[in-house]
Structures are given as C-alpha cells and as structure tokens.
Amino acid sequence: MSPIRTMLALSVALLAPLSAAAQEPFAYPYAPYNEGKMDPRRTGWPLSDAERAYVLKPEFARRPGSEAGKHDPALWPVTPAAGYWGGTRWLDTHAKLVEHVRANRGPVDVLLVGDSITQQWGSPLDTGKLNAAWQSRFPRLKAVNIGIGGDKAQNVLWRLDHGGVEGLAPRIVVLMIGNNNMFFTPETGTDAAARGVAVCAANLLARFPKASLVVAKILPAHAPGVRFYEDMKKTNAALDQLKLDRDPRVRILDLWADFTRPDGTLKPDLFAPDAIHLSPAGYELYAQRLQPLLAPAGKR
Asked: In whole angstroms, what is the distance from residue 96 CA to residue 125 CA?
C-alpha cells in the first residue's frame, strides 16, 4: 500500500484507541518500526548501547523508509525519532528532562508538552522557573514542562516512549506541537503533519487514561503568503478534520484569531522579533485562554 493510501486508511484508526487503557509499546502507523526493523529499542530509559548508537545517527538516516532504501516522507511525523543537534546535545537535553520528571513523579496538575513555545513557559532547561504569565494565572498549579526547542511531532513521540513522562500522573496535559514540522511539509504534506499531532495526542491519552488533554493548534508565524504561515493554516484545518475532540477528554484550543489581525497579519506585540516565538504579552494572552481549560472540574 502506498504511503498516501496508508495514511488515509489510518486516519480513523489512529484515533480509535484514544480512550483505551495504556499499552506498551504504543502501536504506530509505520509497520517496520513496530516490528523492530528500525529502532533497536522502542521503549525504555536509560538506553541500551545499541539504542544509543542508533539515535546518535543524524535524524535523516533514521526516517521511515531509510532502513529499506525508500523515501516515505508522509510517515515521518507519525513515527518516533530522537532529535539530533550534532553529537549528544539533543539526547543530553532529553536526559535532563527525564531527571526533572523523575524528581517530580506522582500527581501533577499540568504536564506541558511541545517545542520551544512550550519550553519558553519556563523550563528546567532554562531558568528552572515558570514565566511571569504562568505564575500570575496559575500560581497554585504544579506544572512539569518537557518542551524542547526545535522538536517535531516525531521527536515528542520518541521522548514519550523513552522515559519522558514515566512516573507522572497529570490531571491535564497541554500539547502544542507541529510548528517545526513545517520545515518539512514540502516533502511530507500538511495532512501528515496534522496526523503527527494526532498520534502525539493518542500516545498521551493512552499513557494517562485519567487525564484530560488540551490540544493547542499551531500558532501563526511570519505573514500571510509565506509558505510557513500558509502550511500552518492548512495543517490546522487538517487537524480539524481528524476531530480529536470526539474523545470527551480532549479539548481543542484555537488561538489563531487571538494572535492575528482581521487581515491575517500577526499582532506584533504578541510576538518576539522573529515573528515565531511569543512575547511576554503573547504568553499572557495564551495563559488567559488556557485558564478556563485548566480549572478543576466543576469550576470551569
């Protein structure tokens, strides 16, 4: 079956197990990965010697299809892959977050999962403190932040399976991922990027059957007419078609209109100068929109 037909066939199957009890290992759309023909150790932390040697290869050498000399970009976002910044830097960053998670094992109010926009809520990778917007809106909530700048959906999947959330019992998970998948949409397409978000959601819900999940759609970046901006819109539209919130534990947070003017351009006061990351005012607005979703049941 071609990658496109495979993805279409799996679009419903990906979401079917969202309410199922946690299973190990999690089943992914790319069969060779599930069959152990790629990653030598699909779950667990610390890594075996073989696994460590494998994930220290450049990420492009570990993409679906590479083990068979094929090119399957539509399956990249839905197949776990450790990140790679050269040498051990990404793996060392993941290890630091695993230590943080282990130090906070047990019940937590909120687990934050994502890339740099999540990391910049405040992280053990930076100051170790949550930022002013979070502290102002959620001073009593115990939060664990496992965002890593530059991560794509497939990197989050790998981290979830390799100690990234082990021992945590969150009440609510907030997931925002997909921004960095836009670098690869000319190859993968935007539908595949949306399914990467969906598989992250499915993995989290399977791991935490008692938690609710907020899926924050990809925020705008750059400007109308720029490929990144337009592909972000297309990916969010494709995510809508997957209807993740048909699972009663899932709530979708769409911030696009909050962060753009009527003509679609970014509200500059909400963004950093790079027109990608958020300013303090942007985090304040994000926190404001999150607040009713993070309130305890009965207080929303």
From this structure: 8
